[in-house]
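Person: Please comment on this record:
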Amino acid sequence: MSTDPTDDLCKAIDERRDELVELTRALIRFPTVNPPGEGYRPCAEFIGDRLRARGFTVDYVRAAGTPGDSERYPRTNVIARRAGTAPGPCVHFNGHIDVVQAGGGWTLDPFAAVVKDGRVYGRGACDMKGGLAAAIIAVEALIDSAANWLGTLEISGTVDEESGGYGGVHYLAERGWFSPPRVDHVIIPEPLNVDRVCIGHRGVWWAEIETHGRMAHGSMPFLGDCAIRHMHAVVERFERDLYPKLAARHTDMPVVPPGARHSTLNINSIHGGQAEVPGFPTPVVPDSCRMIIDRRLLIEESIDSVKGEMRELLDQLVNDRDGFGYHIRDIFEVAPTMADRNGPVARSTAAAVCRVLGRDPEFICSPGTYDQKHIDRVGKLRDCVAYGPGILDLAHQPDEYVVIEDMLNSAKVMALAARSLLYGTA
């Protein structure tokens, strides 16, 4: 054995290669599709049984009453904790167990967990069961590498990240599971590439804008007022006034890809008029049209200012356009968040990437949100980063996969980072 304990730790992970692959395959085979939230409890129990056999205390927490929770689809989270032989900080690895729908376009069974060409294929392989498996192997190897170790290690498998995290990390954070002094540092193995450390994400505001009109016979539209035409005016005003403003804004956040370093607005959908009778349209002037918007904001912006900007635009249309009226409804909002790149968890993870891969990592922020938002805003724990083995562009794609070598390297990085944090060398 080497005299360097970190060399021994990396070697121990290399020796667990087959175990890591099989653990990843086992997790993929649970079709934890969200919505509706299938297979959460069996997957959580699989993780809990494994970690209990290795000396962890295990809690199952059902997020009763959260969106989607029911007796058929309980929102079941698992949290495993193991303390060392002496007091010290707590390092927590959090991975979500839910996956999106498989969808079409697959050439392999999305839940068969096929191993091919150095990859494990399957829905959730990249986002993020490969990362969760790597974190579990990292923690187990770290515990096995030392008879006496400081502090506490935790691993959680949480639900509903793909739908906002309200039945998972948000629920747990509200109840102190992600707050000091219980937890000090968090690493989330999201698929953001093995040579990147993600320190935060942009914010988001989802809303529904409805324009109003007046119904009339389709043969006499001049007797009515078309809500869809009013919505067309909204889109035109976006093009004329709002999109140029958003494109001109630039953030100091290291968001990837570069296009996401600007404020953005996506029109997710537009729905207007009466539903068609099979085979025939309904011959009426539409009195309502609804648009769903997805506004992504920078850390230099506030949600209140973003909402105010939208209302100002719509109020201008009230003044400028005859008959224009609107209603706006909030759906979902998250403020931007960004950890300190010189904080303990970011610094230790970056140093571990350099040690394992032989190059400095890139510090990035995500264009979309993930569960760091709840750990930061609700749990009041700022020392949190995302780091995992998946390739960002593969998330939610057909034939999603995770590279086995990337999982091994990320497991080494997570083990070395946790060791540094526990022993205070970060």
